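$ ./design --mode recover --in tokens.txt
reading tokens...
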């Protein structure tokens, strides 16, 4: 009897980590697709004979549907089952990847990329909510740390993988490679992931809430993504901002008065939940600009290739991969508050170190900033995610994950838009001028100084708002109460 019980316990312990592996597998595909496509754009443009403006929509179409449907995906997972939505999202992502690879026109490719974003939006919240439902609080931070490390790895190696595939095979294979991986992920998920859903009370989809949140996030993301290109005072961008405000205010009002709201707004009364989401938005504002504009600096100013630029970010990425699980495990023991505050302070210092960059800098000039950035991000991301997910009931894990990811996406879009607008004010010479490079460097310095200020503000928000006790202490107090 004891042997059988022990075997059952071992099997359950192993199953948890197989579950983490399965959702990390899916997350890796989503995050890899965020960056791998960028490297292939010039080849796509040549093969498909498409204009630059239309080519941008290969990236934008994916980003918009992904951002718009994150909360919807999380809610659907809570209602219909997180494993089910994860598998459905993975199936959609896999099928649309095949369609992307087979595309012979820009229209077909953009359409398939749009559907890919839908699949990713169903999968992404499910990965976090499945982890929350699978791991007990005392192990959740460590699991989320591994989740964060996988995300960082995918983002970093995307350009490297894309360059190798484009140079040695064809751009189509950056999509074809998802097909066998996705099929394997679907099969494995059916065996290792236990189904979970919100069983707390009567369920309702709240169709008006789904529609207003999705359309509002779409309008806001479109305005932020296209603002620099179209002009912030253009009627198109102003119109989308107005639509976003109307729709999102309408969403909040609907949720306040719905009997069974899609998003229980009382969650934001939990200081740690609202604080973690605010930090998520601020850190994305600060750091998305680094990946975007420093990458352009490395390639266009210093003259490195896309592959070399990706390789230069590897020290940061490796540190995130190594430290994020440790930071997550520490958050289980000592709480997230000071880890987040310290991590954001270190990130802010790393951003200030980019002021040393010049038009003739080398990798060694950038390395200290990369190292501190990796340490600070790792100290922040896992504890931040752990405290956000630990602040909501497990039954609401899907919608909680959707909210957190939405704050990240909006923060990232806002950060790129803000940094781009700042940088543009420093461009006084045409690209062909010898002074154009210095203009870019001056603008990058100003933009990253603002990013540093944002991350220092995030550190203050974390220390002031995050109050959750370590998981071990919470469990001990609960046992005492019983």
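writing sequence...
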């Amino acid at each position: 009897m004891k042997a059988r019980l022990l075997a059952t316990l071992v099997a359950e312990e192993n199953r948890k980590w197989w579950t983490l592996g399965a959702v990390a597998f899916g997350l890796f595909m989503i995050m890899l697709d965020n960056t791998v496509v960028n490297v292939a754009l010039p080849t796509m443009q040549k093969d498909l004979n498409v204009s630059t403006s239309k080519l941008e929509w290969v990236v934008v179409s994916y980003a918009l549907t992904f951002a718009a449907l994150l909360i919807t995906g999380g809610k659907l997972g809570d209602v219909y089952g997180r494993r089910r939505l994860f598998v459905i999202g993975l199936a959609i992502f896999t099928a649309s990847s095949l369609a992307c690879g087979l595309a012979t026109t820009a229209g077909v490719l953009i359409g398939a990329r749009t559907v890919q974003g839908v699949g990713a939006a169903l999968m992404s919240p499910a990965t976090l909510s499945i982890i929350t439902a699978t791991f007990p609080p005392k192990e959740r931070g460590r699991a989320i740390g591994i989740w964060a490390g996988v995300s960082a790895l995918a983002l970093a190696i995307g350009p490297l993988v894309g360059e190798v595939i484009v140079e040695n095979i064809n751009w189509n294979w950056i999509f074809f490679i998802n097909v066998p991986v996705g099929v394997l992920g679907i099969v494995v998920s059916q065996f290792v992931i236990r189904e979970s859903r919100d069983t707390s009370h009567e369920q309702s989809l709240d169709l008006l809430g789904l529609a207003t949140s999705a359309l509002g996030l779409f309008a806001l993301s479109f305005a932020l993504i296209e603002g620099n290109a179209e002009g912030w005072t253009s009627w198109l961008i102003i119109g989308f901002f107005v639509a976003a405000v109307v729709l999102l205010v309408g969403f909040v009002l609907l949720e306040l008065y719905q009997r069974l709201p899609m998003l229980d707004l009382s969650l934001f009364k939990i200081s740690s939940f609202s604080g973690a989401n605010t930090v998520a938005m601020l850190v994305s504002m600060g750091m998305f600009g680094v990946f975007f504009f420093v990458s352009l600096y490395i390639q266009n100013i210093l003259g490195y290739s896309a592959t070399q630029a990706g390789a230069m970010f590897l020290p940061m990425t490796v540190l995130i991969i190594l430290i994020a699980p440790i930071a997550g495990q520490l958050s289980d023991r000592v709480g997230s508050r000071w880890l987040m505050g310290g991590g954001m302070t270190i990130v802010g210092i790393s951003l200030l170190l980019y002021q040393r960059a010049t038009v003739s800098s080398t990798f060694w000039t950038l390395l200290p900033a990369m190292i501190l950035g990796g340490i600070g991000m790792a100290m922040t991301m896992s504890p931040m995610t752990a405290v956000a997910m630990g602040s909501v009931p497990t039954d609401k894990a899907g919608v909680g994950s959707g909210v957190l990811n939405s704050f990240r996406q909006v923060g990232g879009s806002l950060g790129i838009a803000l940094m781009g607008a700042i940088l543009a004010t420093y461009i006084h010479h045409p690209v062909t001028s010898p002074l154009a490079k210095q203009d870019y460097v001056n603008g990058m310095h100003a933009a990253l100084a603002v990013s540093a200020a944002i991350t220092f503000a995030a550190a203050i928000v974390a220390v002031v708002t995050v109050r959750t006790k370590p998981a071990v202490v919470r469990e001990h107090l609960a046992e005492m109460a019983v």
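exit 0
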